[in-house]
Structures are given as structure tokens and as C-alpha cells.
Design a protein that fits this description.
about 20% helix, single chain, alpha/beta, Rossmann fold
Length: about 450
Amino acid sequence: MSVVFANTRGCFLDPRSLIERGYSRCIRWGDDRKSHMKCCFKRQCFETTKSHYSVTEDAGNAGLVQKTDLKTAKKRKRKHTDLNQGEIDSLALHAKIRSIILEGTSSLVDNVRSCGYLNGVTDGGREPLPSPESKLVSLCEMAKELPLMDDSVQEDCVQFLHAEDGRTSHLDLFSRVTENRLDQAMLVTLMGEEYIIPPHSAFLLSDFTRIQPLVHYGRTFDLIVMDPPWENKSVKRSRRYGFLPSSQLKKLPIPLLASPNCLVVTWVTNRPSHLRYVREELYPHWGVEVVAQWFWVKVTSSGHFVFPLDSHHKKPYEVLILGRYCPYAKNSPSSPEIPEMPVEDQRVIVSVPSALHSHKPSLSEALKPYVAAEAKCLELFARNLHPGWTSWGNEVLKFQHASYFTLTPADDPVDVREEKATEEEEAPAALGSPGQLSPSCCRPPTVE
């Protein structure tokens, strides 16, 4: 189950369960024959057991209250007059939303614990985290030498991953959208590395300057989620990944990709200037109306904040700005009648975070009530794929690398025969459109 619990404050997600839902059946080719496998995302990636501070139990706050460690306590407290305007704005924002974060998280954690989750027990052992060297960004840089696609040409912008012999060496990943139209995941070799591609998914591997094939793809989307590489001092110092100046985000072709009433969701850092930019400049530039602000709260496998809630350095939460694309003026006679799906404001999404840098949880289940049942979904600046979604980014395959998964051969002949029969029965469905939300296999969330 991916949504462990939900109430009026928000929901608690099991992100690893959501990942694995699309990989219960996987096929690979070798020596001109097809074999069946099961794929599991490695458990140690979601076993954050320790907070970055010492924890005190508090019955009223579900053990979420923290006391600062000795090193922090010895630091001189900065006077309000020592703070710059950005820091003052950050404190004001935190004071405004603090109770929402604390009360919402406490409510969800309490209920999840009563269901047997967040008991601190892990089973991933002490295995090191997978850390394959990613060459995707450099490959995208090299692909810039290829000629740009003519904006008037829309043919040949799509290619299929599936081939009778499983060979993928002929694929052009940088200037075409690649689709897996099968009902099962595929383990394939791309650019000399093994990747696992989920069912009914599509992706384009390119940087910001080569997004045209996605526009020429001929699809518009009902849900667009994006996680921009926001510019900040920490990123510049670490050089962990490239960043994009905020002003460049306006060049994203959202009006060409979004269906009317499309739900647009943007991950934003806790920097107030970025939040203001999205609300006051970016969304209005695209014709997107802000409808809600959500928070992703990160807790350990014992249910404690991963960072002190009141830390001046790092917060245990991140912000999501939700908006609706409105290409028509309200009450305009020419605007089509599209059913309204109101989005609740100030909701909290709680989960144990991935230990892998910039590996965000999938929002498909949390956003499911606010889009149509057959919604076409797109993720921008993606670093992994989702079953039924279309994804774009210069690291779009990063966390699809086979080293992040445990692969188990499906040796049972009965299982293989059953899977083969299912494939034959569902063959017409393999031609379905990528970009649709997968049906949930979890139990209906409990509501208080």
C-alpha cells in the first residue's frame, strides 16, 4: 500500500511501495530469449533511522519535539538585527506555517504508528547505498552537437522501446520520446548501462535547450509535476548538480503541454524569494492560478523529524505550490465546461525520505483525488520514471539504473505461464496512452 493513512490534514506515504508497484513483473532479453524477473527497489534507500539531533519523547507531539544537540547549543544566537532580509522572511514564513507542520505531522504519525508503521525496525542491513556514476548530464551536453529538430516537423518524434529481439542500440534517446507500451517493466541496455523502464511510461532524455520533441509529442497533460534545480549557495558550493536561474523557468512551454484546468505542481525550496517568484511571476506568466500550498514532511523510520523543526539551517519540510492552468478567462462564453476538482489548502504529506539525493517521493497517489481518473501525467526535471507517466530531464533515467534494484528471476513455470496468458489477454491495452495514473493497489486510506 502506498497511501498508508489519510485524514483531513493530509496523508502518510510509503514511497518505496509506490515505486515497486510498477515492477512486480519485469522482462529482459538475453541470448535471443526473453526471461521474467521481479524487481524490488533496494530497502536501504528508505531506511532513515536517525534524526540529525537528539530526540525527547513528548506524548502531546508524538515524540516530534526535539532538543538541540550540544554543538548547536554552544553556538551564539544571532540577534534579529544580524539577520539579512532573506533570513527575516524565512523566520516569518516558518512562524506562519509551524503549527500546520507540527499538528498535521503529529496527527498522521500517531495514526500510522497505531497501524504498526514507524516502529524503527529496518531490514536493509548495513549494505552501502548504490552510487553508480551518472553520465547522463554529460551525454546530454554532447547531444547538443546534434542538429535541432525543425519546429515544423512533428513526425518521427516517438520511438518504441519494445523490439522482438529486445535490442535497443538503435534508439535515439536525445531527440525522440521513447515509450514502453508493454504492461510490464523492461530491463534494457541503454548507452552501455542497464536500466529498468516501468510499464506504459515514456521519457525524453535532454536538457533545457532540447525540449522540443516533448512539445512535438502531440500530447497535452492533465497533471504536470516539476522539481526545478533551484539556484542557491549550497548547490553552487557542492557542485552536486547544475542549477537553473529562476528567470529561465519562464521558457518552459507549459501552455503548450497543459490541458485546460491542468493541475500544475511545483517543488519549491523554503527560500521565500523562490516561493514568491512561483506565486507572483512564474504561474501568472503561464496562466496558472495558485490554488493551494502543501508541505512534504520528512521523518525517520521511528517517526521523528529528520531535522529540528525550528532549525535555522535546514528544515524537515519542503513546499509544494499547486495551481490550475486557466487558458480562458473566467466566465468566458468560449471557455469549455470542465468539472472543477477543488484542492484543499495547507495539506501535509509525510514520509520517510529516500537517502538518495534529490530522490523525491511520487505524488501520484496524493494527487489522485484532484485529477480525472484517466489523467495524463507529466514530470519535468525528472530523475526517475513512473508507471503510466511521461517524464523529461537531463537525468531522467538516473534512479532507473539497475544498481538501485534487487532483481530476482521468476523461475516458477506456473507464474511464467500465468504472466504469458495475461500478456496475451491484455495485448490491445499495450497500445494505451502513456501518461495515465496507474490504478491504486493499496487499501482505501482511513479517514478520521
